[in-house]
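Reviewers of the previous submission asked for a worked example of the structure-prediction workflow described in the proposal, so we include one complete record here. The input consisted solely of the amino acid sequence. No template or homolog information was supplied to the procedure at any stage.
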Amino acid sequence: MTITHFPRPQFIRKDWQTLDGAWRFAFDDDNKGLQEHWFKGYDFPLTINVPFAYQTERSGVNDPSFHDVVWYERTFNVPSDWKERVILHFNAVDYETAVYVNDQLVGTHIGGQTPFSFDITDVLNHGEERVSVRVFDPSTDETIPRGKQFWQEAPDSIWYTRTTGIWQSVWLEHVPHASLQRVRMTPDLDQGEIRLAYDVSPGAVGLTLETEISFQGELVSLEQTRLVSTTGKRAVNVLGPHIFHTNFHHDGRTWTPENPNLFDIVFRLKDDERIVDEVTSYFGMRKIHTEGGMFYLNNKPYYQKLVLDQGYWRESLLTPPSDDALKRDIELAKEMGFNGCRKHQKVEDPRFLYWADHLGYLVWGESAASAFYTEDAAARLTREWIEIVERDYNHPSIVAWVPLNESWGIPLVRSDAMQQHHSQAMYHLIHSIDGTRPVISNDGWELTVSDICAIHNYNHGQAEETEKYEVYKQDLATTESLLASQPARRRIYANGFSHQGEPILLTEFGGIGYKIGGDAGWGYTSVSDGETFVNDYARIMDAVYASRALHGYCYTQLTDVEQEINGLLTYDREPKVPLEAIRQINDQWHHEIR
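From that input alone, the workflow returned the following structure tokens.
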């Protein structure tokens, strides 16, 4: 993937340098690299194309077998005009990472889905620099949040080829001693304000923070604040003096999938008139809440038409082959009449969220899960979720968080008090660091406390199985039938928990298998031609739209993935049927608020 864009799209500085591209590479199957000090120089036998995992074709290695320890190395030069701090960033590395620069350990990180960085200024030699990276990714440890990555040799059923090591961008950033370190942007639609919370480095205390907000090139606000500490908060009115309420119609500046309006914001640290640091970003003014069994966007009921998106590509697995590939997935989904996706078992590249923000696309943020419950698994998931929310908080496209799915990692949650506490703890943890979005405690079934009742049901049957279809349709028909159903022979709520009036959504269903070209595989049901596919999709959607209780859905799935051929698109993103045919079905019925 050729990087021409800033890899952190909501906190942009002008001085940066990509380290993506060719790295030297080695497998360390005997785990001897540390003992032999490979970080001090080693004859690495392979070349790998970062950020693609060694299991992928795009990496140039293309080896799907097990290698739990891998090493990377490359040299680089820091631009001569970078006179202050130099930060080395990794957007995601799976799973345990140790980073060395010029023979010195500069830091470690545990977790495969979130970014981390190290200040490497003090170990630079101001000539040719060398970075070495050791990654440990234990293939068979099922307490690691690995999502769909299979712990056995060949992909099978719903499990796919593994991803080991660097799988998102690596880059350098030049950061002033006096700098802006972090900004949280929280829209308050009812007051028409954007609430800013910021952290600055100690060297910035005493300087002025200038905040410039504009909308479509028109200046909205320009304010300056004298910094008296390393943290601060402020609120800026960007929508005028009105107060939002249920019947208010937006003024053309709010964010929705239909009108994804965004404000530009520039932060400048100034010493008198000299700009010391400058960061550019953007935000969207939108509000999410649930009330009376409905999901609300900007104080109006909003029916979510989502598609399950696992974010895999044939040639590159979890790593998008290009920035355009991320954008195109959203465009294709919108062309089919979907207004968002549930990103399934993956924390997607930040550039996906950038495009979701700009194109208008709802996203349910989800992480990879572990297979089993242990105290270590609980701790690992907790750490990653703190980092997930930190990374993605400012994206207006994200409208829900999904920390757990189908009781993965909590297989006994129906009755086990410890696992129930973990489900509740994840719910409350996320709410404790993000009070703006709903949280689903266990998407699919065996929910504990949850802001949305998310149900999975694939029991629609083949077209000729009319009796099975009628049961499916009846299960979806009313609140009572949905809550009484056991579509996977599991109750919707865990023991001791019950529906408290939260919105009910069908968040996995469908999965019609349709083979195109040479790909063979499976789906939850199957068809043999495009016309039958469209008819079967319409049949399933008729049952969903007939429901008097559902307030949204998430169809499985956007694309085929490896042995799964139940996508609306092939693995290579070719439509299986005309996109307009799917859109007509998705648009044929506009949900009444009941």
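The longest strand covers residues 274-283. We consider this example representative of the routine output the project will generate in years two and three.
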